[in-house]
Amino acid sequence: MTARNMLGAIFLTVTVAILTGCGTAERNQVADAEITSTLPPTLTPSSLPSNLQSALPSTTVDTSPPSGDRRTDALAELSRLPIKGRAPKTGYDRALFGDAWTDDVTVEGGRNGCDTRNDILRRDLVDIVFKPGSNDCAIVSGILHDPYSGATIAFERGADTSADVQIDHIVALSDSWQKGAQNWDEVTRRNFANDPLNLQATVGNLNQQKGDGDAATWLPPDKSYRCSYVARIVKVKSVYAIWVTQAERDAIVQVLSSCGASDFDMPSEETSSETTPVETEPFTPITQPEPLPESPLAPSLPLETPLPPVDVSAAYYPNCRAAKAAGAAPLYAGQPGYRTGLDGDGDGVACEG
Q: What percentage of the chain carries pLDDT values higher than 70?
């Protein structure tokens, strides 16, 4: 082969290789474009095949922001609460929720050097006077504008007067026990019993009248506060994953159905850092039930009407440990089991810490 023929063969081979490579690149570009066009722009449950969609969890965590309408928000939260019957009260003991008004909690106000009772008095009273040397903890006197009754009460610390103002668990400890708290650990129960979201200072006789009732059996006598009251019940039960009974749910809906934007006056809703978000069903609007009769609600107890006399000798506790073990603590002056020997600071509330 001559040199000229050899050069011609080499040129022909190089030319064929270049043309072949270009054709492959063009085909690859077309294939890539076809693949890209078949991918969904965003991977969402609806873009998955039906057989994969069915494998997704049926419950989700509600991350939607509040609407700003407390009535709407309360109804939305209520719709996500499970509806069940009451569990047996078997095994309930106040001591399972920790020492009364302990500061050893992780909710707002916890471990601040002041017990929960005085923390709430400081929040809910005005014109407060502190006990000297208590580091602005122990309240000597103050004024309570009671939201439950609408009355103004003068609080004065003392064996015969402290019990005039008591701290109500908006969702009672016993009620929570029968609706989910039996499954909580010790820390959660202790936080729940001392969470400011679930506590309200009120006149003593109303706190005693309510007992462990829920919204189906007791509402504040001052109707102007009922919207805020039931909204706080819903908030507490939502935060702590406590269920409601059908009667309780219907009573709450009945109250909220008549509420306007100006009917709510809720305190701080800061909650424990230990609280775990609750998995809930997607929101389904609530159908308003027929109005409930007034009869299920306990009749209002006039403030000037004293509590029925009690036989203090009917219960005796040798010490506060025994009172707590019996689920009776704290003991207020005039209640069965109260005696000054258990009330170390003479404020009318024994076995409170």
A: 66
Closest listed residue to residue 269, CA positions, set 244, 233, 241, 243: 233
Is the model's pTM score more than 0.85? no
Instruction: Give the pLDDT of residue 325.
Output: 76
Residue 86: both structure tokens together: 């009451």
Question: CA nearest 247: which of 88, 108, 85?
Answer: 85
The residues with which 125 forms a beta bridge, in sequence order, are: 144
What is the C-alpha separation between 48 and 309, in angstroms, rounded? 69
Residue 268: both structure tokens together: 């701080």
Coil vs helix vs strand at 250: helix
DSSP-assigned letters across all residues of 305-335: SPPPP--GGG---SSHHHHHHTT--SEETTS
Overall size of the chain counted in residues: 353
The string of pLDDT tens digits covering residues 21-66 is 544 444 444 444 443 333 333 333 343 344 333 333 333 334 456 6
List the Cα angle 332/334/340 in 5-degree steps. 70
Q: How many other CB atoms are found less than 10 A from the CB of residue 87? A: 16
